[in-house]
Amino acid sequence: MTPSDSGASALVIIPTFNERENLPKIVGRVREVLPEGHVLVVDDGSPDGTGQVADDMAAADPHIHVKHRTGKLGLGSAYLQGFAWGLGEGYDYLIEMDADGSHPPETLPEMVARAKARPIAQGGSALVIGSRWVPGGRVVNWPKRREILSRAANVYARLALGVGVKDATAGYRVYNAEVLRALSLENVNSHGYCFQIDMTLRVDTAGFRIEEVPIVFREREIGESKMSGNIIFEAMGKVTLWGFQRRMRQLTGLFSRR
C-alpha cells in the first residue's frame, strides 16, 4: 500500500539490529497513535531474526514495509536509504525513531502536527525534534555518566557550531520531505551518533526552521545500548572540524562583502 492508496503522509523509519523482542512492541504503539501512517523497518541483517519478524508484520499489515540489508552498515546509512525510499514513494513527512522503545510514540501526533502547522515557505518547521534537553523533556533510567556525556556533547555542539538546538544529537525527528529534497543527501557520509548532528547543521545552514518538542526518553529495557563514550568523543572531533569550517565560511563571506 502506497501513500496515495491510503491517504498516508507520514513514514516512520525504524533501523534495526537485533531488536526481535522490541520491534513488535514499538511498531504496535506507532500504529496505534498514527493509524494512517506507514512504517519502514530497515534491518541490517540481524542475526537474531529481527528481519523475519519484520517480514511477518508486513505480511499482516499493508502499512508496514521492510528493507533488508546485508550487514551492519550503520544508523546514518539506514536513515539515508529510508529517506530515499520514502521520498520516492511520495511521503510528505519522514520520521526517525529507535526500535528500543526509548522514543515515546505517544508524542508522535504532536510532533507531526507541529511539522504540518504551517508550510515551510510561511515559516513552518522543516524539522521537529523530540528533545530531552528543553523544558519539559527528561530522561528515565539513564546512568548519570551517560546523561552528563549527552548534555555536555550537546552544549559543545551548540557552542562549536553556533546552532541554537538544545538536543542536536537526538534521534527522534520529523522531517518535512521538502527539506530533505533540498539538502543533497548524496553528500552526507556521517554515521552513528554524529549523523544527527550533521543533519541538524545542514538544516540550520540551509536556513530552515527547527523546532524542539519535549519528550520523556526512557532507557531500553530489553537488549543492550549501542552507544558508548568513545562514539561520543569521536563525534565531538567531527563537530570541532565542522565548527571550524563553518566559522571560516562565515569569515570569508564577511570579508567578501567589504
Global outline: globular
Largest sheet: 7 strands, mixed
Look at the structure and give the CATH class.
Answer: Alpha Beta
Count of DSSP E strands?
Answer: 9
Individual helix count: 9
Describe this structure in words.
The structure is a single chain. By secondary structure, this protein is an alpha/beta fold. It has a single domain (3-256), classed as Alpha-Beta Complex (Spore Coat Polysaccharide Biosynthesis Protein SpsA, Chain A). Helices cover 45% and strands 17% of the residues. The protein contains nine helices and nine strands. The strands form two sheets. The chain has a seven-stranded mixed β-sheet with strand order 3-2-1-4-7-5-8, sandwiched between helices. It has a two-stranded parallel sheet with strand order 6-9. Helix 2 links the parallel strand 1 and strand 2 (38-43). Helix 6 packs parallel to helix 9 (229-256) and helix 8 (193-205) packs parallel to helix 9. The radius of gyration is 18 Å and the shape is globular. The model has no long low-confidence stretch (mean pLDDT 90). It comes from Okibacterium fritillariae. GO terms for molecular function: dolichyl-phosphate beta-D-mannosyltransferase activity. Keywords: Glycosyltransferase, Transferase. One of its GO terms (cellular component) is membrane. InterPro entries: DPM1-like, Glyco_trans_2-like, Nucleotide-diphossugar_trans.
Q: What's the layout of helices and strands?
A:
Blueprint: H1 3-6, E1 10-16, H2 22-33, E2 38-43, H3 50-60, E3 64-68, H4 75-89, E4 93-96, H5 108-116, E5 125-131, E6 138-140, H6 144-161, E7 173-176, H7 177-182, H8 193-205, E8 209-214, E9 216-218, H9 229-256
Parallel strand pairs: 1-2, 1-4, 2-3, 5-8, 6-9
Antiparallel strand pairs: 4-7, 5-7
